[in-house]
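## retry 2 of 3
previous attempt timed out at serialization; input unchanged, resubmitting
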Amino acid sequence: MEGKIRNLYPGGNTPDGFYSYYNYILPQRKAEKIFCLKGGPGTGKSTLMRKVGQHFIDKGEDVDFLWCSSDPGSLDGILVKKRNAAILDGTSPHIVDPKNPGAVDEIINLGEFWNEELIRKNRSRVISCNEKTAKLFGYVYGYLKCAQQQYEFLSHVLDESISYEKMREYKSQVCLKLDGISVLRRSESKIKRDSVLGKDIYTGEKRKFFAGAITPGGIKNNIISIIDNIERIIIIDVPIGFRSEKLLSQVSERFTDAGFDIEEYYCPMFPEDKLEHVVCPDADTAVVCSNEYHVIDTENVSGKVIRIKVEDDLDSAESELLKKIYEDIKESSRDCILKAIEILKEAKANHDILEDYYVPNMDFDAMDDLREYIIEKIEEK
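## retry succeeded, writing output
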């Protein structure tokens, strides 16, 4: 039986530039082995990681595939969960430096497998390609910053159209759904007893990622992969611009206060603040938001689904102006994101040219030997 694959993004293209959650992939104290791959484009990093991941999947082990937001067909890393082992792309922009070299981390320098003399013959072209790519990404982030400001305006409009009483009701609905989770209630009761007895209380840890990304291939969404095989799924249907963190922060806090480790998934438009999904594997529960950018179809969900719908009052007669403003700004924000995607496509095409200077000058037979070495190192732990 094959292992399970989850697809997620450890970093993303955001209004703040490339935003990394790499430090959450595998904490140092839990890690048995972390390989940091250093090398240029086209040196086989993604292929190497994919083949190592597939090796363990074929053995029945679960693997997280960590995808690249700037090239949706390439991997930025893999996590072999049972082995507490990871392989990460440590090159720009997602630079991963070893924190405990030798004890946990190992640097793999792919420069050992290329013909530097031949690559240097294209020195000026390589530099020009890198400079052009950097400039293009600057334009991408500029458009995303414009979209973010408009998105903020959308949130302000929605805040005016959703009453305090309604918001309190939505929070209450979410709380009631959590009350129905017996494993959560039991853990909360145990925490209370331990607190009274003066015992040490464990607070759950948070790991942060993106469930989707703004990529050259469009807006990608892997939320179905992340909640697949989760027994209990609470889906909150929300309008674009809704401040989902108002509902999700209480979910995150309640699980961690009860001693559960959780995964938090953030919106690429607000990577520090806008919490959109919370997954608690040990409680077999996920609370996720569905909107126009990441629609969650219940036909693709295997677990028991509970839905909560957040409704605004933009259709009321007195809100006619607000509704017009909301629709105009929503369209304008989407247009900025689509323009950013078009430039991402150009940056990807330019990056492909850069790869052409490396691929012919790589010793891929040696890369096969490296793959076997990494597998052996992971399996000996």
